[in-house]
Amino acid sequence: MIEVIEVSKTFGEKTALHDVSFIADNGLITGFIGPNGSGKTTCMRIIAGLAQASQGGALVDGAPHRLSQRPGASLGIGLGSDRLPGALRCQELLRGAAEGQSMPRSRVDELLQLVGLVDVRRRRVRELSAGMRQRLAIALALVSRPSNLLLDEPINGLDVTGVTWVRELIVALAAQGVAVVVSSHVLSELALVADNVVMLSKGRVVRQGPLQDLLSISSGGDVVVRAKCADQLIDAIRQTGVTADFSGGDIIARRTTAENISLIAQGNGIVLSHLSEIRPSLEEVFTSLTEPEFVEDFNRLGSVEKVK
Q1: CATH number for region 221-278
Q2: What separation in angstroms does the CA of 209 have from each of 26, 104, 196, 220?
Q3: Around 249, how many Cα atoms within 13 Å sit in the side-chain half-sphere?
Q4: Mean pLDDT in consecutive groups of 10 residues from the start of the chain, 308 residues
């Protein structure tokens, strides 16, 4: 389990993180999202023990990661492939990591197979494509079969096959009990795997909780409704203050629920022939909650809304 407890981080006069708290439980995938510069990478580096919080702290399985007796087994760290040593061959790099973490040499072959780099194992890192380097970075994070995993933008540089592979990998790891924290700008991909979401904006948590709860209540959904008495129904909906418009033969009611529309129809004796909800995507929720107006109001209030 990964715990971030009231973490703040300043760089000179700049505040990168302000009172950030969340928990990533064992066996769950926590999506870590936010605009560029929101503080995601800084927070992940603090969890990994690569940066020091100005206030607060992070625990991995109950202790700061820098104090772990077996850091590789406690936390797998995949914060990008930019700093991989270009002169080393893939096999050499993994072998050195395995030896340094007291893992058998056979683990290198397992990892090369897992990440699909068997055919390029003798190729130097600098000769690899961006996608191959990303796979290698993930392999390094998994050397000691960690119980917790941090992945920062793991699908950068990957093709469609690679993206699917990462998705299936982290789902499989979570099923084995690993606590996975993963950040990504491809929110549609993250929405396919995340159990929980932590959303940052300007260094603050603006929303966190189960993904499905976030999609259900953060932005509200639209409702598609159809009835023979369409004109009567749309007037009844509008009288309640809900925005509604015709779209072809359907009525689209904005930012409401199917239950609410059903009650309006029943109250007016209107029989519905179709009723369905269109829930916002994670991208839409993200955009609505990180708009400048929202962030300004949030910072002024100084509070965090948590989805229960």
Answers
A1: 3.30.70.100
A2: 15, 39, 5, 16
A3: 7
A4: 96 93 96 87 95 96 93 93 91 95 94 95 93 94 96 89 93 97 84 90 88 62 88 94 90 87 94 83 63 44 38
**Structure tokens belonging to residue 291:** 């708009």
For every residue of 95-160, DSSP letters joined together read HHHHHHTT--THHHHHHHHHHT-GGGTTSBGGGS-HHHHHHHHHHHHTTT--SEEEEESTTTT--H
Q: Domain boundaries in the chain?
A: 2-75+146-215, 221-278
Q: Say what the pTM is.
A: 0.74
Tokens of 53: 């919080």
Q: Which residue has the tokens 């893992």?
A: 103
> Looking at the DSSP assignment, which residues form a beta bridge with residue 181?
30, 150
d(CA 282, CA 276): 19
CATH superfamily for 2-75+146-215 is P-loop containing nucleotide triphosphate hydrolases (3.40.50.300)
The two structure tokens encoding residue 17: 């993180």
